[in-house]
Design a protein that fits this description.
This protein is of the alpha+beta class and about 70 residues long. It contains 1 helix and 2 strands; from the N terminus they run ββα. The longest helix is centred in the middle third of the chain and has 12 residues, at about 20-30. The radius of gyration is 16 Å and the shape is extended.
Length: about 70
């Protein structure tokens, strides 16, 4: 049991954790086999026109290596 992986280290700091050793092993295996899919949700304040779009640009590390852009 314990921490499986810290997702998006430079952005949100979200983590995957397991309560049992069995679950930990299964999650680690899923990560290495790239079976876990990430999705993002943006919260917007103010008026927003409902337009749907998908952005297919990869993230890149900043020049100083401290965050993702």
């Amino acid at each position: 049991a314990g921490l499986v992986q810290r997702l998006d280290y430079y952005t949100s700091g979200a983590m995957i954790a397991a309560k049992s050793q069995t679950t930990w092993r299964k999650l680690r295996e899923s990560l290495f086999q790239e079976e876990i899919e990430k999705s993002y949700l943006a919260l917007v304040e103010g008026e927003f026109e409902p337009v749907s779009a998908t952005i297919h640009w990869p993230l890149r590390q900043s020049r100083d290596g401290t965050k993702m852009e």
